[in-house]
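tmp note - Alpha/beta hydrolase
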Amino acid sequence: MELTIPVGQDTVWTEHLAGDGVPIVLLHPGIGDSHVWDLVLPGLDGRRVLRYDVRGYGRSPAPTEQFSLLHDLETVLDQLELERVLLVGCSMGGGTALSYALAHPERVHGLVLLCPGVPGFPWPEEPELDARYDVLAEERDVDGLVKLGLREWAAAGSDDAVVAQLRAAIPAWFDQDEYLQQEPPVYDRLQDIKVPSVVMVGDKDRPILAAVAGGTSARIPGCEFVWMPGVDHFPSLREPQLVTETILRLAGD
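out:
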């Protein structure tokens, strides 16, 4: 079932699939929208699954006010009365999942984190990349940003699905500085996470993302680490079967 859920004065496009077991919540990366889960969904048939597009991404309208990724997730789960969930987050979505798990530990069954972005990780300065991005964003050069995104995030290949994901995400980037609030740091609090957790990252992802994934896995007690050969920053498109199997294992299958 497709829904439009109010978040503040805006709305987000949501898909809520009826089924059994612990609800599975799929949180997309900042370089795509919820279509990034299309190859994973068939393997979750019969399960209760939720996915939505963050404000400005994919099928959700652009934001008109400042907003928080964590608060929007809280609102969506409350609206659908989902009391305890398995959070599956990729990159940006992984950071949201971690923030939620620390804010509401009693409502999280487990975490599957794909190449997660983690608020508070000591990210190194990248002045050349930032300068190039700023020029392209100022010019609203979508084609230029697609090329930049393919170079940085798609080392495993620039197929049509990956290009489509970048094109679905880039319009949201233009509004982020104005509207998207930074989440409080969580990297130094990861030892407080007590639910079953898996961190997955590919060997074709950016080295800094492998470092984030390794550091995150090491700090979460009992966390499983999965290294994915040949995979870049789009693991659900590159290895959907492995991602699906991991989700089901954490969900209880």
